Amino acid sequence: MEEENGELNPESGRASTKQHQEEEEEEDRKVVKFLDSADSYLDLFESLSSTLRQGWLELATARQSMGASRINSALFDLKYHSAATSLQVIQDDVKQPNFTLCKWVSIDNRNSSTEEAKFDENELFEKNSTNAQLRYRGTSEIQEKRPESNVSTLTVDDQIQKERSKSLSMFGTLVSPKLRSAQISFETALDTLVEMANMRSSLLSTYDQVHKDMASTKVDEKLIAQVQV
Amino acid sequence: MYGFEALTFNIHGGYLEAIVRGYRSGLLTAADYNNLCQCETLDDIKMHLTATEYGPYLQNEPSPLHTTTIVEKCTLKLVDEYKHMLCQATEPLSTFLEYITYGHMIDNVVLIVTGTLHERDVQELLEKCHPLGMFDSIATLAVAQNMRELYRLVLVDTPLAPYFSECITSEDLDDMNIEIMRNTLYKAYLEDFYQFCQKLGGATAEIMSDLLAFEADRRAVNISINSIGTELTRDDRKKLYSNFGLLYPYGHEELAVCEDMDQVRGVMEKYPPYQPIFAKLSYGESQMLDKAFYEEEVKRLCLAFEQQFHYAVFFAYMRLKEQEIRNLMWVSECVAQNQKSRVHDSVVFIF
């Protein structure tokens, strides 16, 4: 029996050492993931700040070019209309909600469009709604699943351009290229904000996991200390 | 007869020419702009401007200041100076001075009509109108549903009435129609102003022809660039160009078919007066084009003061003052946004 016990103990010891090592590696991975997320979040924050500064300056440049009477808040359209861009919050995991931006696809357009246009707009919807996820996940899996011909890409880009022009039309149809640049800058800032929201969600989730691991490690250490005593 | 204005001009125009030359000496210099560009806050800008001719207009403004407040008060000074000159002027100078404000009138009409289309309050829109372009029945513009009503109800009794003959339709006012209306009105105004100056003759006709031709050419270039990638057809674009200027008619033919900035550049570089402007820009760039055009305009406006006994000095002063106000707006925006490194991107020095 003692011999049997002697044969069993080294194997279970090796198994528990291996398990312990794996746990440690897993903890280290979580810590690294947490630090990566924090770093990415700070980078996105800087990028947002710089994009917004650029956008505001371009807007001021456009006012300089077109005149203050052509670009001012009194021209904003107060008629009822659907938002050109919407944000979807998917909360499959309570602790890690996911944010998706759907750009330049207003409900008004979708309801009134023809069949062909609806097909184009559905493509537009899918392309714009997965864009934020593509950037967030950093993989090409989703891209490979959706075979895109050059012709449909051009049609979707034309549609996006039309929507952009439509939203700028409150300032007139012949606007300065600087105003269009300002629009692109603010659009980029919106994309960055959604990325930041997703990154923050991931950061908080990873933080919780690391915190939990640290708490359980402390409990284990206490137990070991008590046993030794 | 050209050359004999010295004999008779001062009878009716001498006092006002002296007044406007006095106003001109009050324009901000490069030293003033250098001081303003070093300001850290809008209150610093206000403090520096208090020591200039803008002092009485800004000194009582409470903090915190806004960039629009600075622009508003500086514009008030321009309006006061203009009104002083207008009330002292006799014909034909009084008509000439009124012509200078028709551009602002057109902008105000379009502002009210566009704002009404967007369901904005008329009072709010009236506050945003340029004071030089106000007229009595301007608030009634909000009632019109199409251009025919616009003309019949309001504009028939205004100086803009003759300019409406080309754009009276029963089509409803939408964004594209309003834009075409704006540019058509401005085209008609510029042509009418040009004809009026030709009738005046002498140094006024000569100098104003050059200044108005430059304005017409600049508008043609801006319309071409701004309409790239829009639904405006080539024919419609060509209809918005004025029927005078250095680019008329062959330059207009070529500009009408341009699809990008490089093609516009290719057209303009064929005209020697515009070669230096486009030489400053790199290929594909349009950011600095406005500044280049403003610099050229300021040069021509300053040259108008080199001759005496003509009305172009009044036009030149008004335009130089507007440029000064644009400069102040830009400096204020850069200071407010903490982007002082970009302040020299758009400031055009006058002296």
Automatic annotation (TrEMBL), chain A:
<dbReference type="GO" id="GO:0070072">
    <property type="term" value="P:vacuolar proton-transporting V-type ATPase complex assembly"/>
</dbReference>
<dbReference type="GO" id="GO:0051082">
    <property type="term" value="F:unfolded protein binding"/>
</dbReference>
<feature type="region of interest" description="Disordered">
    <location>
        <begin position="1"/>
        <end position="30"/>
    </location>
</feature>
<protein>
    <recommendedName>
        <fullName>Vacuolar ATPase assembly protein VMA22</fullName>
    </recommendedName>
</protein>
<dbReference type="Pfam" id="PF21730">
    <property type="entry name" value="Vma22_CCDC115"/>
</dbReference>
<dbReference type="InterPro" id="IPR040357">
    <property type="entry name" value="Vma22/CCDC115"/>
</dbReference>
From TrEMBL, chain B:
<comment type="subunit">
    <text>V-ATPase is a heteromultimeric enzyme composed of a peripheral catalytic V1 complex (components A to H) attached to an integral membrane V0 proton pore complex (components: a, c, c'', d and e).</text>
</comment>
<dbReference type="InterPro" id="IPR002843">
    <property type="entry name" value="ATPase_V0-cplx_csu/dsu"/>
</dbReference>
<keyword id="KW-0375">Hydrogen ion transport</keyword>
<comment type="similarity">
    <text>Belongs to the V-ATPase V0D/AC39 subunit family.</text>
</comment>
<comment type="subunit">
    <text>V-ATPase is a heteromultimeric enzyme made up of two complexes: the ATP-hydrolytic V1 complex and the proton translocation V0 complex.</text>
</comment>
<protein>
    <recommendedName>
        <fullName>V-type proton ATPase subunit</fullName>
    </recommendedName>
</protein>
<keyword id="KW-0406">Ion transport</keyword>
<dbReference type="GO" id="GO:0033179">
    <property type="term" value="C:proton-transporting V-type ATPase, V0 domain"/>
</dbReference>
<dbReference type="InterPro" id="IPR035067">
    <property type="entry name" value="V-type_ATPase_csu/dsu"/>
</dbReference>
<comment type="function">
    <text>Subunit of the V0 complex of vacuolar(H+)-ATPase (V-ATPase), a multisubunit enzyme composed of a peripheral complex (V1) that hydrolyzes ATP and a membrane integral complex (V0) that translocates protons. V-ATPase is responsible for acidifying and maintaining the pH of intracellular compartments and in some cell types, is targeted to the plasma membrane, where it is responsible for acidifying the extracellular environment.</text>
</comment>
<dbReference type="InterPro" id="IPR016727">
    <property type="entry name" value="ATPase_V0-cplx_dsu"/>
</dbReference>
<dbReference type="InterPro" id="IPR044911">
    <property type="entry name" value="V-type_ATPase_csu/dsu_dom_3"/>
</dbReference>
<dbReference type="GO" id="GO:0005774">
    <property type="term" value="C:vacuolar membrane"/>
</dbReference>
<comment type="function">
    <text>Subunit of the integral membrane V0 complex of vacuolar ATPase. Vacuolar ATPase is responsible for acidifying a variety of intracellular compartments in eukaryotic cells, thus providing most of the energy required for transport processes in the vacuolar system.</text>
</comment>
<dbReference type="InterPro" id="IPR036079">
    <property type="entry name" value="ATPase_csu/dsu_sf"/>
</dbReference>
<dbReference type="GO" id="GO:0046961">
    <property type="term" value="F:proton-transporting ATPase activity, rotational mechanism"/>
</dbReference>
<dbReference type="Pfam" id="PF01992">
    <property type="entry name" value="vATP-synt_AC39"/>
</dbReference>
<keyword id="KW-0813">Transport</keyword>
